[in-house]
Design a protein that fits this description.
heterodimer; A: alpha/beta; Rossmann fold; seven-stranded parallel beta sheet; five-stranded parallel beta sheet; 8 helices; 26% helix; elongated; B: alpha/beta; two-stranded antiparallel ribbon
Chain lengths: 309, 248
């Protein structure tokens, strides 16, 4: 089977989110990559070095600079004439593009796979991960998004794939990029962080969240996450949200601070290796999944913990 | 401008789903069902656009069992003008839903189709993007803000690193994220009025769409259960545990 993996990038670097997808694709067959971007030669070169990659298709065109799905999907769909499976990371970018590719190919997408069980059989979470479905595709071609935390990352060195320039129809003329507000942070990225410190509604307001959570995260070199309640209340930006509809994370250690543990939040973090919960409500559902729990007032416990580490 | 808003009847978000003992799916018998939360946000956004004068009519659509009429009545009570139920007792996959919606869009010619970004039942997150591809129109997925400006719509999207703003030529497809708005509750008089609003019932065959599933569900199982660990007595004990993990 020949697979085509959509490389996630910012025209300068390959995003880590691409690497587990390469691993998933390798379970199906030969791995080809698609780099669609503008002035993205460095991305193509880095992509060619990823272990296990057979070929890198590069479409360099201003129309692909911002990854607009209207422009990228027809390009990917056309390349699928010579491939059997299209795979993308289950990131906002992958989720934006892949179903559009699937519709062009008249294929029912398999979303957010957790494992490859056979050439056309996969497991995927449904109902916020409260059930795991095993599904088999009957379509001639496959379109798949991959949950990054479920597969090992492919090595970024060791490959020497050929790079081939391809071109597509370019600008579909229906959409344009206006601007982006991407937070620049020295912190590790949430979905690939080894340690995450997350705060919930109990943090009261943005200032208290910052004053309580940030020092602990700084001390541990951790990424900062949040429950939906904390994001909705405006304590932190939307891209901090961990949960069914936010980011799915599986760090080595996850601190849940002032988070009660709604099933929608648990869906996003319950595959963490160690979960540590601090909450003053001893009946909070978070304690049912926590490896280490402390029933305490977070406003005294967290500074004390930070000070002692 | 007309706005089409597809809505899905799903298990209520407060209910913990249970897997059937025979492993064929999730037990929906005697379980509270509600409108998919993201679809409520879609209905609300359509109503707000109408209140601002950017839209003239809101058509709610549901593809599902006869009981999905209740979901459509909720949309009508919130403020949609009329409804279409495409009735089927079978599970319908996103691709088939998108094909039916495409056929309805061909008839209704909406300027905007606003959908929830995913249903909280199968969590696919596909229908809006598929519909956009089938219609050959642009998409503003995971919308945080929607503004109609002349013959285009400007959508601020929630993306992994933050926010991205795109400008789309109408007609366009928008899918909603959580923070687009806070849906209103339907008032009692509006619930009564909604009973008089038109609701047409159709079938997939009316639109010439084959509902045969492309994915075979071989098994549905409970996820591995995570065992609760221990509670520590105080911060000092927690510090010991954290240090033992070798992270500090």
């Amino acid at each position: 089977m020949k697979t085509l993996v959509l490389v996630e990038h910012d025209n300068t670097k390959v995003a880590d989110a691409t690497l587990p997808v390469v691993t998933a694709a390798a379970k199906l067959g030969e791995v080809h990559l698609l780099v669609a971007g503008h002035n993205c030669g460095a991305v193509a070169e880095a992509a060619a070095k990823i272990a296990g990659v057979g070929k890198v298709h590069v479409a360099d065109d201003a129309a692909y600079a911002n990854g607009l799905a209207e422009n990228v999907a027809p390009l990917a769909a056309a390349l699928m004439a010579d491939h059997d499976a299209f795979l993308a990371p289950a990131t906002t970018q992958g989720k934006n593009v892949a179903p559009r590719v699937a519709a062009h190919l008249d294929v029912m997408q398999v979303s957010e796979i957790l494992s490859v069980e056979g050439p056309k059989t996969f497991t995927r979470p449904i109902y916020a991960g409260n059930a795991i479905a095993t599904v088999e595709s009957t379509d001639a071609k496959l379109v798949i998004t991959v949950r990054g935390t479920a597969f090992e990352k492919a090595a970024t060195e060791g490959g020497s794939a050929a790079i081939e320039a391809v071109s597509g129809a370019g600008d579909a003329g229906t959409s344009s990029f206006v601007s982006s507000e991407i937070a620049k942070s020295e912190r590790p990225e949430l979905t690939s962080a080894k340690i995450i410190v997350s705060g919930g509604r109990a943090l009261k307001d943005a200032e208290t969240f910052e004053a309580t959570i940030t020092p602990l995260a700084d001390k541990l070199g951790a990424a900062i996450g949040a429950s939906r309640a904390a994001v909705d209340a405006g304590y932190v930006p939307n891209d901090y949200q961990v949960g069914q509809t936010g980011k799915i994370v599986a760090p080595e250690v996850y601190f849940a601070i002032g988070i009660s543990g709604a099933i929608q939040h648990l869906a996003g973090m319950k595959d963490s290796k160690v979960i540590i919960a601090i909450n003053k409500d001893e009946d909070a559902p978070i304690f049912q999944v926590a490896d280490i729990g402390l029933v305490a007032d977070l406003f005294t416990a967290v500074p004390e913990l930070t000070g002692a580490l | 401008m007309k706005i089409l808003v597809p809505v899905k009847r799903v298990i209520d978000y407060n209910v913990k789903p249970r897997v059937k003992a025979d492993g064929t799916g999730v037990d929906l018998a005697n379980v509270k069902m509600s409108m998919n939360p993201f679809d409520e946000i879609a209905v609300e956004e359509a109503i707000r656009l109408k209140e601002k004068g950017a839209a003239t009519e809101i058509v709610a659509v549901s593809i599902g069992p006869a009981k999905a009429q209740e979901t459509l009545r909720t949309a009508l009570a919130m403020g949609a003008d009329r409804a279409i139920l495409v009735e089927t007792e079978e599970e319908v996959e996103p691709l088939a839903v998108a094909k039916i919606l495409k056929a309805i869009a061909d008839e209704e010619a909406p300027g905007l189709v606003i959908l929830g970004k995913q249903s909280i039942s199968d969590d696919s997150n596909q229908t809006g993007q598929m519909l956009a591809a089938l219609m050959g129109r642009p998409q503003g997925t995971f919308a945080n803000t929607v503004a109609v400006e002349g013959d285009s719509v400007v959508v601020k999207r929630e993306v992994d690193g933050g926010l991205q703003t795109v400008k789309l030529a109408l007609p366009a497809i928008v899918t909603t994220d959580l923070r687009l708005n806070e849906p209103r509750y339907a008032s009692l008089p509006n619930i009564m009025k909604a009973k008089q609003k038109p609701l047409a019932t159709k079938t997939a065959a009316d639109y010439g769409v084959d509902l045969t599933p492309r994915l075979k569900t071989l098994k549905v199982a409970e996820p591995p259960v995570r065992q609760a660990g221990e509670k520590v007595a105080d911060v000092a004990a927690l510090v010991e545990k954290v240090k033992a993990l070798g992270i500090a």
